[in-house]
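Render this sequence as a predicted structure.
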Amino acid sequence: MRNRDLISKPDWTPATYEAVAAERTAPSQIIVIPITGEVRGAFGIDPRTAEDGTPVWIITHLPTGHHLPRDFLSRDAAVACVQTLEGLACWTMDDPGQTLRHPDAPLARRLVASAPGNRVA
């Protein structure tokens, strides 16, 4: 499990964690990216600059290293989204496929898509 030692922090804690992304030149290969941000439970958040120059916050699922498919326009919006998602059992999975197939996954997708302060990534 990725980021094992950082999962389940009860309060937002500064940390460096691993995120993953597909290699642009070889999409079947994964690259690991160290991210400096904050962690709590199964999630990490960090500030970034979107391609259009907008400052955003990204939420990463720590067990898989995948980021959620939305950017958030403020830290408060990202934190509020995490608080909404924390109780869903799908976030305990460390395999992206299992997470997506879990019975809670459709609700999780709806909650992320409708979360205040988000924008399509």
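Summary. Residues 4-120 form one domain. The first strand starts at residue 9 and ends at 22.
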